[in-house]
Design goal:
This protein folds into 3 domains: 1-38 and 50-75, no CATH class; 82-155 and 261-303, no CATH class; 163-240. The chain has 8 helices and 12 strands. The protein has helices spanning 16-24, 66-82, 138-153, 156-161, 163-202, 207-240, 245-258, 264-273; strands at residues 32-34, 37-40, 43-46, 53-55, 97-99, 106-111, 114-119, 135-137, 277-281, 284-288, 296-299, 302-303. The strands form 4 sheets. The chain has a 4-stranded mixed beta sheet with strand order 5-9-10-11, with helices on one face. Strands 6-7-8-12 form a 4-stranded antiparallel beta sheet. The chain has a two-stranded antiparallel ribbon with strand order 1-4. A hairpin with a 2-residue loop joins strand 9 (277-281) and strand 10 (284-288). Helix 5 (163-202) packs antiparallel against helix 6 (207-240).
């Protein structure tokens, strides 16, 4: 708007929705795909990512790099999780509560005017087999989880002492990326070697020699492809466990002075910063994250 660029439908003002769709669209990274939707009768439905087809050279100029786009998605997801969405009832653990039984997320739902959490696996539209997990009193669970998190934050020295260990773990991400690049280059080298074998065969080299060498190459390629899968999985795990160390240090300083005054927003920020997740297993809530908190919180009152 500052540059006077007109909005897509005309006019000077760009809506948040339009900008939000731009930031979610991979086309603005220079990657445009066909086959995202298909017609089923008169209805247009979304296709799985496996059916998407990359259109080469479809975009002349990208607005973001792929790395920037991934960072944008993470921030948008965090913003969505932290937003109270103008709810009359607050759900501190929204977006961080999971069912141990079916693996789905819990969502906040009012029951007789009081906040509760319910497993989304109980919704028939999401699953043919309904999850048997019961609805949980949100206020009781929120209070129990925050009590444990607050107890850890009361001793910020313990948290800060583990920052070096976290940094070492984050350095592994760079190592894994280098290893993935090395394996990929080796596979390209094998492709070249296999092409050379084909030339040998055309020039009349002994068939047994060519077959034997080709088998060695195929065996190595299989092992390398397995290595790629394992390395990609480890790299994804390393990215998921990424934590903003500066934000941790700042939050620890704030907590050391104002922890009793933490409101809903500050508590949500703390849970997000420390990657706190809560798994509901029967009547017990189990925590994981980067804070030194007990893995098991407490038994909770539930409704059928």
């Amino acid at each position: 708007m500052e540059k006077g660029i007109p909005a897509p439908k005309g006019g000077h003002r760009w809506s948040r929705g339009t900008v939000g769709r731009i930031m979610r669209n991979t086309t603005y990274t220079g990657k445009s795909y066909a086959g995202k939707t298909r017609m089923e009768g008169k209805k247009r439905v979304s296709c799985s990512e496996a059916d998407h087809v990359l259109i080469p050279n479809a975009v002349d100029c990208a607005a973001f790099t792929w790395e920037e786009w991934e960072l944008i998605q993470r921030q948008l997801d965090r913003n969505r999780e932290l937003s109270p969405r103008n709810q009359k009832l607050s759900y501190l653990l929204s977006g961080r509560l999971f069912c141990k039984s079916c693996g789905r997320k819990y969502y906040g739902i009012p029951v007789h005017g009081k906040p509760y959490y319910r497993c989304s696996g109980r919704v028939r539209l999401l699953s043919d087999k309904r999850c048997a997990s019961k609805t949980i009193n949100a206020r009781q669970l929120d209070e129990a989880v925050w009590t444990e998190v607050a107890a850890a934050l009361e001793n910020p020295r313990t948290i800060l002492a583990g920052l070096q260990q976290l940094k070492d773990g984050m350095n592994q991400e760079g190592f894994l990326a280098e290893e993935l690049d090395r394996i990929t280059k080796r596979i390209k080298t094998l492709d070249t070697e296999q092409e050379r074998l084909l030339q040998w065969a055309l020039k009349g080299f002994p068939e047994e020699t060519v077959i034997k060498e080709n088998e060695k190459i195929n065996h190595e390629r299989t092992e390398l492809q397995r290595g790629i899968q394992e390395t990609e999985k480890k790299l994804e795990q390393a990215k998921d466990s990424h934590i903003d160390l500066e934000k941790v240090e700042e939050l620890c300083k704030i907590a050391s002075q104002n922890l009793p005054d933490f409101g809903y927003t500050e508590k949500k920020l703390a849970l997000e910063t420390f990657k706190i997740r809560v798994w509901i297993d029967g009547n017990t809530a189990k925590l994981d994250g980067v804070l030194p908190v007990p893995s098991e919180v407490c038994a909770m009152s539930q409704q059928s």
